[in-house]
User: What shape does this take?
Amino acid sequence: MTRTATAKLLFILLGAASCNARSELREVDRLAGRADAVVVGGVQSGIQSGHSITFVLTVDQTLKGELSPSTTASVSWQCAMSANKDLKGNYGLWFLAKADGGLWTLLGVLQGQYPFEFAYFPVPKGVPTIATASPPATVSDRIAVELASALEVYTDYSQLSQLASGLLGIGDSAVTLSLYQTLRTSTDPSLKFVGVSGLLRSNDISVLADVGNDIGLIPNLHAIGLIPAICGVRNPLATQYLGKIAASMDEELQRCAAMALDYIHTLDTLPFLAQLLASGDPATREYAVQGLSRFVDNLPIQNQSNMLNGGALMAQGPTPYRTPETDKYSLSRGWLNGQDDAPYLVFWKSWWAATGSKIAASAP
Assistant: This one.
């Protein structure tokens, strides 16, 4: 499987993640809840014939359920991708559901079409366990420890992406935050930014300093989860960090920083949004126009609550900078939808040149 295809599989699981509440269930939590057994082990024997898969799994470690270490489980599964191959030797962390007659069904860790090797997490055998600040208290904590420990000895991009997507698919706890802190100190930049991504998703904006300081490295890294985590920042205290990231030459990083600045759109974001009007990326320019429009229309910072109740589109007080002209070129409540952005860029560049210094001077 190519690196591009592997990355697509990763983003199926990660999605366009935002900063999540500590108690929010994520994909791996839900999978663990559905499973009757979560185990670490290897395929003793088995085949895939077309879409049909049957194998015998030898259990080495039990994280949940009644399957004890050294026992075996007969497992079946229907794979969306057809193949004919021997499955012996596949080893990792598996999610299983009970089936009739003492058999088991595999619960794949992704949705959609993918090969058997992406249906479980590839945890190598005999990996030293990472120490955590507090002992694992839940099944998800135990899964997190296994995934993070395996990450420290990953061998290729495919394994890195699978393990990182799994770890980032677990809700925040004292254990996961401890694991992210450990990964953040790694000398391997790819692992460091997995840890940074996890901490950023838990709303620890201080780690954005790491991103800004090493921004030149990021385009060359397998920075799993970092892009969606930056996109999801909604904390105005992160503005200066986001502004530095927005200056990146990497288009994805710049676009995600622009998206975050757009939805924050406080006074401090305005100089950065104005600079992004000159971006070479159309999506980044649109976020810049939208952010300036939202400031002028005095809309609140977007969050999950005001998105659901419509409050994100309602002015939160006076709108002293709003005029018929700003209304004409406003994107505060909409998108360009393929329209030429040139008139909008001309207007907002002119608006900032005429108004920016006055706004700054009137700030408390």
In short: Residues 233-364 form one domain. Strands lie at 37-64, 72-86, 91-98, 104-106. Residues 342-362 form the longest helix (21 residues).
